[in-house]
């Protein structure tokens, strides 16, 4: 070993050899030695395994292609290597901040459940069937109430939403009629198979004076209605094989003679006597009245709809009514 080599080693001084890149030794002679390739302006330093690592190149830019031999001092956990937040500076280990994360589409989040503290539900509803409803099962806790069955109603059980079934003998509102402008007919849909009887009460008027409103079941215009009509003078008229049934005496409002009516449809599901029967009572504010009762003669025909239309007038002037069903 020359005196110069011995001096450099004892004082941690290493002389960097230089030459053409192609003339660089295959392996470094010692750790920490260097070689300057003057034709490519590349500086090579020897790593711990005495392999050459290029740390400089054309233009003087620092280049590292392998960090396996780069070490640093022990640091706190969960830090990232980044430049300072919002200002220029050197790389260092620091905590991640909001500015480090770019704006992302919600589609980038493909798993997990957001908690209620983030304005979400805190539960996965992707597998819930249609018709279900969300409700709060506790403070800040969402749950899903699966859909019930047709005819059930929403109630409370132990303070929480639940589906209930109308008990036999209970009454429920099926529909309302709110016809404020003149029309040639009014129809209301009902599901007779759900009820023991149905009753309709309301008020109506026709565009002509001294007129009557008639009704049909299930849009049936055939000769399937047998009924008896009685007026206030005590005259009874028996009618068979009719295409309608009288139900409301409702003159026009100009007189005024609006008809207040009550219609009771018995056995709409035809489970008791195989036929739908009815009773209709009506009286006007001028004192005229009508009482009619009869039977719809189609055997086993469950009620699906009730249609109202005037006897002589072009239109029913208006009708307001409630339709109830009794279980």
Rounded to the nearest angstrom, the radius of gyration is 46 Å
CATH architecture of the domain at 171-326: Sandwich
Structural class: mainly beta
Strand arrangement, major sheet: 11-22-13-18-19-20-15-16
Number of helices: 1
Order of helices and strands: HEEEEEEEEEEEEEEEEEEEEEE
Find the count of extended strands (DSSP E, 2+ residues): 22
Strand content: 35-45%
Spatial shape = rod-shaped
The CATH topology name of the domain at 171-326 reads Jelly Rolls
Low-confidence stretches: 57-61
Overall pLDDT metric: 82
Largest sheet: 8 strands, antiparallel
Helix content: under 10%
CATH structural class of the domain at 171-326: Mainly Beta
Distance between the termini: 113 Å
Describe the structure.
- Strand 2 (34-37) and strand 3 (42-46) form a beta hairpin.
- By secondary structure, the chain is mainly beta.
- Among the domains are: 3-60; 171-326, Jelly Rolls.
- The protein has one helix at 3-10, and strands at residues 17-19, 34-37, 42-46, 52-54, 80-82, 92-94, 133-138, 141-145, 153-157, 160-164, 171-179, 186-189, 197-206, 212-217, 225-230, 236-242, 245-249, 259-266, 276-284, 289-296, 305-310, 316-326.
- The chain is built from 1 helix and 22 strands.
- Helices cover 2% and strands 40% of the residues.
- The strands form 6 sheets. Strands 11-22-13-18-19-20-15-16 form an 8-stranded antiparallel beta sheet, with no helix packed on it. A 4-stranded mixed beta sheet has the order 1-2-3-4, with no helix packed on it. It has a 4-stranded antiparallel beta sheet with strand order 12-21-14-17, with no helix packed on it.
């Amino acid at each position: 070993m020359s005196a110069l080599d011995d001096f450099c080693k004892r004082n941690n001084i290493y002389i960097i050899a230089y030459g053409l890149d192609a003339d660089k030794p295959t392996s470094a002679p010692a750790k920490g030695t260097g070689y300057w390739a003057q034709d490519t302006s590349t500086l090579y330093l020897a790593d711990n395994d005495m392999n050459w690592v290029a740390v400089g190149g054309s233009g003087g830019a620092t280049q590292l292609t392998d960090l396996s031999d780069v070490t640093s001092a022990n640091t706190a956990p969960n830090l990232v290597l980044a430049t300072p937040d919002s200002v220029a500076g050197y790389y260092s280990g620091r905590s991640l901040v909001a500015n480090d994360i770019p704006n992302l589409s919600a589609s980038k989040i493909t798993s997990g459940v957001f908690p209620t503290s983030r304005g979400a539900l805190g539960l996965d509803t992707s597998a819930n069937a249609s018709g279900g409803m969300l409700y709060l099962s506790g403070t800040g806790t969402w749950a899903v109430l699966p859909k019930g069955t047709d005819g059930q109603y929403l109630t409370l059980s132990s303070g929480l939403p639940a589906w209930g079934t109308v008990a036999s003998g209970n009454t429920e509102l099926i529909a309302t009629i709110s016809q404020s402008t003149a029309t040639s007919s009014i129809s209301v849909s009902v599901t007779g198979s759900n009820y023991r009887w149905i009753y309709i009460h309301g008020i109506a008027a026709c565009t002509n004076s001294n007129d009557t409103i008639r009704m049909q079941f299930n849009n049936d215009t055939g000769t399937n209605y047998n009924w008896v009509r009685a007026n206030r003078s005590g005259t009874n008229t028996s009618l068979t094989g009719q295409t309608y049934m009288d139900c409301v005496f409702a003159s026009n409002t100009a007189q005024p003679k609006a008809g207040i009516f009550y219609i009771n449809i018995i056995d709409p599901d035809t489970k008791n006597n195989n036929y739908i029967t009815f009773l209709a009572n009506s009286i006007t504010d001028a004192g005229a009245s009508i009482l009619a009762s009869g039977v719809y003669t189609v055997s086993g025909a469950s009620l699906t709809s009730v249609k109202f239309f005037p006897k002589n007038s072009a239109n029913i002037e208006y009708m307001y009514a409630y339709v109830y069903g009794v279980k």
